[in-house]
Amino acid sequence: MTGETAILAGGCFWCLEAIYDDLIGVEHVESGYIGGHVDNPSYREVCGKGTRHAEAIKIDYDPTKVSYSELLDIFFHIHDPTTKDRQGNDVGPQYRSAVFPLNDDQRTAAEAAIKKAAELWPDPIVTTIETGKWWPGEAEHQDYYARTGDSTPYCNYVVGPKVKKFRTEYADRLKPGTAV
């Protein structure tokens, strides 16, 4: 890795991972958990809603090709930051909208991005700024959409449409060879 890291939570990590994987400047995306009180939680524990972890992604990126502020701008366009503990039919604290800054500059950028997002959305922004320890998700959750495509009902009705919308709206920011 040659750059920096960002951690974002905005619903199902399969959706976020699939979108950021397509973005120029993103070197690697890992699905995992952050913001809870249990060490090394499992997907089942997180989905049980008792650990307070969020499904999140850790993005390793090259800041000479994409900035942290750009990552945040995309974040506030690809999920609904106005619904507490929910994205569509996915409900629970693990689906909350949150930014996990790794330093003071990222915290300042996150605060500015939330203010900017408030101008885009008609309802109040509920995205939180949090801290926490990162825990990688299980192997079966890594590169999920890249491996399965629209072959599962969830990906066909939830992930696929979000990825398509992103690819259409950000066509000029996609890695070469990414189908629009």
Short description:
The chain has six helices and eight strands.
Commentary on this structure:
This protein has 180 residues and is α+β, with helices and mostly antiparallel strands. It has one domain: Peptide Methionine Sulfoxide Reductase, Chain A (2-Layer Sandwich), CATH 3.30.1060.10. It is built from six helices and eight strands; from the N terminus they run βαβαβαβββαββαα. A six-stranded mixed sheet has the order 7-6-1-3-2-8, covered by helices on one side. Strands 4-5 form a two-stranded antiparallel sheet. A hairpin with a 2-residue loop joins strand 4 and strand 5. Helix 1 runs parallel beside helix 6 and helix 3 runs parallel beside helix 4. The longest helix is centred in the last third of the chain and has 17 residues. The two termini are 27 Å apart. The mean pLDDT is 95.
What would the keywords be for this entry?
single chain; 180 residues; alpha+beta; Peptide Methionine Sulfoxide Reductase, Chain A; six-stranded mixed beta sheet; two-stranded antiparallel sheet; 6 helices; 8 strands; globular
For the record, the count of structural domains works out to 1
Helical content stands at 25-40%
Largest sheet: 6 strands, mixed
Mean of pLDDT: 95
- Seen as an oligomer or otherwise, the chain set is single chain
The secondary-structure element order is EHEHEHEEEHEEHH
Topology:
Blueprint: E1 4-10, H1 13-21, E2 26-34, H2 43-47, E3 54-61, H3 68-78, E4 86-87, E5 90-91, E6 97-99, H4 104-118, E7 128-129, E8 135-136, H5 144-148, H6 153-169
Parallel strand pairs: 6-7
Antiparallel strand pairs: 1-3, 1-6, 2-3, 2-8, 4-5
